[in-house]
Amino acid sequence: MEFYDVIRERLSVRAYTDQAVPDATLARILEAARLAPSACNRQPWHLYVVRDEAVRQALFGPEKQDWAARAPLAIVACSRPADAWVRWADQKNHADIDLAILFEHIVLAATAEGLGTCWICAFDPKNVRAALRLPVELEPVAMTPLGYAAKPSQPNSRKPLDQIVTRL
After folding, report:
1. Measured in whole angstroms, how far is the alpha carbon of residue 140 from the centre of its chain?
2. What stretches of the chain adopt beta strand conformation (E)?
3. Domain ranges of the chain
């Protein structure tokens, strides 16, 4: 799929089939994530690929996102703030920014592979920590179910460029 088509095709999917994601497809998506840039190439992240249904239920069920648990797998992206670049002028830690770039690589790669995703940040980090037994240095930042869409998603409206861009 051509790059701009991938961008146009990416939609949040909230209903999945039970069709398994092929290992080779998942490997390509994870490779796209691995290639994501980060500030000073620190790569302050760690991914969890969750196929286990009970763990997916623990991740999504408590937040009333059981639709997400029905996807054949989920990816949980965690930052490692201690390893991230910190801007010298104001001490801003870039772990979340770097992780967002990585996560968008995942979402776009999945779209190019014909898979659906839904970027989820509405969760209780304590539930995610417990479900994955996260080490203290990792912070769960974003999750997505990953699978084949059960039904077409409808695109959301987007603001026109003149509302979001200032040209000087």
Report:
1. 11
2. 45-50, 73-79, 116-117, 139-147
3. 3-152
Print the SS3 string covering 103-133. Answer: HHHHHHHHHHCCCEECCECCCCHHHHHHHHC
H/E run at residue 97? helix 95-112
User: 50, 58 in Cβ contact below 8 A?
Assistant: no
DSSP structure class, residue 70 = T
Q: Is the dihedral of CA 16, 22, 23, 27 positive or negative?
A: negative
* DSSP-derived secondary structure letter, 20: P
How would you classify residue 24: left for phi > 0, otherwise alpha for psi between -120 and 50, otherwise beta? alpha
User: Can you give the pTM of this predicted structure?
Assistant: 0.95
CATH 3.40.50.300 fits 3-152, yes or no: no
Q: Give the pLDDT confidence score for residue 154 in this predicted structure.
A: 85
Cα 31 from Cα 24, distance rounded (Å): 10
Q: Looking only at Cα atoms, what is the longest distance across the chain?
A: 53
The 3-state DSSP class for residue 64 equals coil
Residue 24 CB partners (closer than 8 Å, separation 6+)? none
CB atoms within 10 A of CB 149: 17
Predicted pLDDT at 152: 84
